[in-house]
Design the sequence.
């Protein structure tokens, strides 16, 4: 295995409280040493002066389409997109075909992730069989499988039945596993295509009210208090949900939350063009909601930025708005959007950005990815130029699908290199797939 | 004149006046023995209808033919098109390849005309999209109101019923507000969400309260298929609270106009006797639709209304 000396970068390692210019020597999969000026000692020197060296990013919310829709995204293609985006771990959502509700499926996902070898693929399991919200999935078997599932969710759907939600939370306590909710009261949201408000009324589209999310978030927090289960709220999108989470955390409830780059970057104004690429669930909300999500990311209410990367084939998105499936890809734009929308305008510090993209999600999943990057720690590292400008070009995305409303957007912040367990997976922005397997 | 007509948002009051004035001039054509103008000879207009609407399609077809355009009717009931597997975009490109000059589109999905206008070079006319807009209906309604009241400014217009799901209501409110009319939306909050107040219209729940003050009572169709959504308890209760019957008509100004975009549910939003009363101009609306659609095709595709000598 090669030795690399990252020379002259600004190391930001929130887990050890470091933010300073120092060298990093990577060897045998770990950080061999750090220091102001390290000796080359036969290592390949990579000049990273002016760049940020940080723990590898972790995505809590990735939809790969394998098994079932390998034309849209395989575990290998998602891994390549993730590495290109600076990620060293992704948590794959279970709404594949078949649904990941048994040990056999999560083990397959895990094995394909290993085979791709570009990031740690952490399979999430379904809470319920077939994600129908009626019967428990094989929770214990998934926990005990080689995939070691630790996060369970019916993402794509919220659990509608409160008694079922309670029972699953109680059961998950056995393993101290996480109950992760896609908060959506389906009766209130039925038929909705965008956020319900002035814009949906003007555009003549059925809306999804904020309350569809907030009611379920509040219910789940009450049930988490009742059961003691660890609760994670996926892609929270409204000012109300942020406030509900803030209060619960102040009370000491074991709840964590994530928000997506599109919810902190965009509003329902995007829908005025009827661009199906801006259709997503939960929907893009109002400016007030967007600002509240930014505030909650800044003040620690939200623990993680998660992509909700959701590839859809062109022929599925290139239709009437009403018929298009919700979702957008996000693995390759999340770091740049965080820098462009949050760091550069001064809403959060670079350190906080790394907490949200790496340390926070890594802690939720119990991974070593989030650092510290001190001597002897596994070398999951991202190197990025925080000022590097680039324009989102579908042709250059590694994901098999290009459904993103950010096409043509000029972003500031570029991934230069990614190391996964000490191996270079991305070098000068190029994914080194194939050389690794 | 604009290239596409997708929404009433695009039109200034001056644009609306031009469209209505041109319609008025063109109307005289329909009174001639030979009801045709050569203006659009050699141009091709396609009626692309994803929802069945014989009356709107015929109105556009006749309007295009009166201006000597070639007309293609492409009735792609969305179910059959899905079954055949041809997407909306493929259909658009097919029409484009055939060299059509204008596409008149009716679609059940809000925003479909917007999307279409980004795919083709032809002019796109929105003939009704989902619950979004129906601009030609609004223009013919404005035309019909202007026939009776010289000035639309300050005119008190009540729009009664299911505003939430109505493309006719959206386009009419925008057009009326642009022309300076005073619009009151009447119905229960299940049909008129508070956000409608941002359109520049007032909202009221009680029809009886406004009967004496309004100049126009515009009744929206109650969509009986929405009954399962629990928007109001029963058609009987709806009729009692928001239906326009002869008793209510008697309390209104003598010159009041009763309007309806059709097709009507007699006995629900409108009493049978009211629809046939002299105050009802529902049939004029249909006739005026032809003139307004001719005007739009004329202005968008060929006409030069500024230089005067256009209609010969
Ligand atoms: Zn979700």
Sequence:
């Amino acid at each position: 295995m090669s030795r690399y000396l990252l020379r002259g970068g600004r190391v930001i390692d929130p887990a050890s409280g470091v933010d300073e210019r120092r060298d990093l020597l990577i060897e045998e999969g770990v950080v061999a040493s750090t220091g102001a000026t390290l000796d080359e000692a036969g290592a390949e020197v990579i000049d990273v002066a002016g760049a940020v060296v940080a723990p590898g990013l972790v995505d809590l919310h990735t939809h790969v389409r394998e098994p079932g829709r390998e034309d849209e995204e395989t575990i290998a293609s998602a891994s390549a997109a993730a590495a290109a985006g600076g990620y060293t771990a992704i948590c794959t959502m279970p709404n594949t075909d078949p649904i990941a509700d048994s040990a056999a499926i999560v083990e397959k996902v895990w094995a394909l992730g290993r085979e791709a070898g570009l990031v740690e693929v952490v399979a999430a399991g379904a809470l319920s069989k077939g994600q129908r919200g009626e019967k428990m999935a094989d929770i214990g078997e998934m926990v005990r499988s080689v995939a070691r599932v630790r996060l369970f969710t019916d993402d794509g759907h919220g659990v509608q039945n409160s008694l079922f939600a309670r029972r699953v939370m109680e059961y998950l306590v056995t393993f101290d596993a996480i109950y992760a909710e896609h908060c959506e009261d389906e009766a209130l949201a039925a038929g909705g295509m965008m956020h319900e408000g002035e814009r949906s009324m003007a555009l003549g589209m059925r809306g999804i009210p904020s309350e569809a999310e907030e009611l379920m978030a509040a219910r789940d927090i009450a049930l988490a208090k009742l059961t003691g289960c660890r609760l994670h709220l996926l892609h929270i999108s409204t000012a109300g949900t942020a406030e509900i989470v803030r209060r619960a955390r102040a009370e000491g409830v074991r709840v964590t939350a994530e928000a997506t780059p599109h919810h902190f970057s965009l509003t329902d104004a995007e829908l005025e063009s009827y661009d199906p690429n801006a259709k997503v669930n939960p929907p893009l909300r109002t400016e007030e909601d967007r600002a509240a999500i930014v505030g909650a990311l800044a003040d620690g209410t939200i623990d993680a930025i998660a992509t909700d990367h959701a590839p859809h084939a062109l022929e599925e998105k290139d239709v009437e708005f009403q018929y298009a499936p919700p979702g957008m890809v996000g693995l390759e734009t999340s770091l740049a959007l965080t820098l462009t929308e949050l760091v550069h305008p001064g809403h959060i510090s670079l350190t906080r950005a790394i907490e949200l993209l790496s340390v926070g999600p890594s802690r939720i999943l119990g991974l070593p990815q989030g650092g510290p990057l001190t001597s002897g720690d596994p070398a999951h590292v991202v190197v990025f130029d925080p000022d590097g400008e680039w324009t989102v070009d579908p042709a250059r995305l590694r994901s098999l699908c290009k459904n993103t409303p950010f096409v043509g957007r000029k972003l500031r912040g570029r991934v230069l290199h990614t190391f996964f367990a000490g191996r270079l997976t991305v070098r000068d922005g190029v994914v080194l797939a194939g050389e690794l397997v | 004149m604009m290239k596409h007509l997708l929404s009433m948002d695009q039109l200034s009051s001056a644009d609306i006046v031009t469209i209505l004035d041109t319609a008025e001039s063109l109307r005289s054509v329909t009174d001639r023995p030979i009801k045709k103008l050569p203006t659009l000879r050699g141009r091709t207009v396609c009626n692309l209808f994803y929802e069945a609407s014989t009356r709107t399609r015929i109105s556009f077809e006749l309007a295009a033919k009166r201006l000597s355009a070639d007309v293609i009717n492409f009735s792609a009931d969305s179910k059959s098109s899905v079954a055949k597997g041809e997407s909306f975009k493929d259909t658009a490109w097919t029409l484009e390849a055939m060299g059509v000059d204008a596409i008149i589109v009716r679609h059940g999905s809000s925003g479909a005309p917007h999307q279409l206008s980004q795919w083709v070079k032809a002019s796109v006319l929105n003939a009704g999209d989902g619950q979004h807009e129906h601009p030609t209906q609004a223009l013919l309604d404005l035309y019909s109101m202007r026939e009776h009241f010289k000035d639309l400014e300050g005119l008190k217009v009540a729009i009664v019923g299911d505003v939430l799901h109505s493309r006719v209501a959206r386009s009419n409110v925008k057009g009326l507000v642009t022309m300076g009319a005073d619009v009151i939306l009447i119905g229960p909050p299940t049909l008129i969400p508070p956000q409608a107040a941002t359109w520049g219209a007032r909202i009221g729940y009680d029809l009886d309260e406004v009967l004496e003050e309004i100049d126009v009572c515009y009744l929206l169709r109650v969509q009986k298929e929405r009954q399962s959504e629990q928007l109001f308890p029963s058609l009987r209760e709806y009729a009692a609270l928001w239906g326009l019957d002869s008793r209510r008509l008697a309390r209104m100004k003598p010159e009041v106009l009763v309007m309806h975009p059709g097709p009507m549910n007699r006995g629900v939003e409108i009493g049978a006797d009211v629809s046939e009363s002299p105050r009802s101009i529902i049939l004029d609306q249909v006739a005026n639709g032809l003139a307004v659609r001719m005007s739009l095709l004329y202005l968008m595709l060929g006409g030069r209304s500024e230089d005067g000598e256009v209609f010969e």
Summary: Residues 210-227 of chain A form the longest helix (18 residues).
